[in-house]
Structures are given as structure tokens and as C-alpha cells.
Specification:
two-stranded antiparallel ribbon, 2 strands, single chain
Length: 204
């Protein structure tokens, strides 16, 4: 490929990905964060309250500037040197390693995930992921099989790959909630497609 075609391919790749991402933003704007600020999981599963009895002086945290939560001050992690001597380390370590405490943390994480999936931002992230993925696949397939001009076809393939990467980054709110095997399978499928395109289009 001549140098001019290489630069053309690089330019098309970058501009195509930018155009796809910005077009999605223009025609499908994400909802504002403050519209989904009603997560009550921390109040439902306030696991730190389980350590309250480990403090010798339950008002120590409040006196040190930590606000009170309900009837109890918010417990402070034992690594905070300012609270040396204010808690029973054996009691504290026993609780945070207990099955009940770990189960509480797991329940809170699951609650947060369920809340996240119910938000408008999550729905937007999910829809954006599939829209950008479709655009990327169309660009890659078009560049590989339907356009014969070398610089343009290579640019479209590159643009499709960059758009796919942009989809993974910009829609991480959805992508990261997928199962690890689903993500692995999706990445593997794209890799196989690229191998196939490389073999069929550029083997000569």
C-alpha cells in the first residue's frame, strides 16, 4: 500500500470512529446522573453498623468529625490511626471476617447492581453498546467485502475496530455487568471475524 493510501486509511479510521460516537451522542443523548440519585442500598444494607459494639466510645467517630448515621456514628476502618485505642481490634476483625458481614456486603453489591440495571443511564448504555457494535460490524464487513478501493476499505475496517473499542469504553456501565464468559465469547467472536477477514481479503 502506498504511503498516501496508508494515511488515507488512518484518517478514515479515526474520523469514522469519531463521527459514529459523536453522532450517537447528538441523536441519542445520555440522561443526566441526578435523575437516578435514589439508591437506598447503603441504607438497606448498612453492614458497618455490625462493628458498632467494637468501639469503646461510640461517640468517638462523631467527635472526630465523622457524621452520625441514625443512632450510631459511622464506624471507621481500623487502619485509621486517629482512632487507635478507640476500638477492640479482635472484635472488629472478627466481625468483618464473619460470614454474616461478608454476606451483608454481597447483598449490598447485588442491590447496587440491581439498582444500576433499573436506571435510565444503564438502559442508555446498553442500547448505545448495541448501536455502536452494529455500526462497527457493518463498517468492517463493508470494508472487507463490498469496497475494492484499498485505502477506503482498510479505513473502514480500521474505523470499525476503533468504533468497537469506543463502544467497550463508553458503555462500560453496561459492558462490565455482563458475565465474564459472555464478554470472553464476544471478544473471541470479533477476533475470529478479524482473522477470517485478514485471511480472505489479504492472503494474496
Amino acid at each position: 500500500m502506498k504511503l498516501s493510501r496508508i494515511f488515507l486509511a488512518i484518517g478514515i479510521s479515526i474520523i469514522f470512529a469519531v463521527f459514529a460516537g459523536y453522532s450517537l451522542y447528538v441523536f441519542y443523548e445520555p440522561p443526566k446522573y441526578y435523575l437516578d440519585q435514589n439508591n437506598t442500598c447503603h441504607q438497606q444494607f448498612y453492614c458497618e453498623n455490625m462493628t458498632a459494639d467494637c468501639y469503646h466510645n461510640k461517640t468517638a467517630a462523631a467527635e472526630m468529625g465523622y457524621p452520625a448515621y441514625g443512632a450510631e456514628p459511622i464506624p471507621v476502618y481500623y487502619s485509621d490511626a486517629r482512632f487507635a485505642g478507640e476500638y477492640n481490634s479482635t472484635c472488629y476483625n472478627g466481625i468483618i471476617n464473619s460470614q454474616d458481614y461478608l454476606q451483608c456486603l454481597e447483598d449490598r453489591d447485588n442491590c447496587n447492581i440491581d439498582f444500576q440495571k433499573s436506571t435510565r443511564r444503564y438502559a442508555h448504555s446498553r442500547n448505545s453498546f448495541y448501536i455502536l457494535t452494529a455500526i462497527a460490524m457493518i463498517a468492517i464487513i463493508a470494508g472487507a467485502f463490498f469496497i475494492s478501493v484499498e485505502g477506503i476499505s482498510s479505513g473502514l475496517i480500521g474505523g470499525g475496530i476503533l468504533t468497537m473499542l469506543y463502544a467497550l469504553i463508553s458503555t462500560s456501565e453496561y459492558w462490565l455487568t455482563l458475565g465474564k464468559y459472555v464478554k470472553l465469547l464476544a471478544i473471541f467472536a470479533v477476533l475470529i471475524l478479524l482473522f477470517y477477514i485478514g485471511y480472505t481479503k489479504f492472503k494474496k
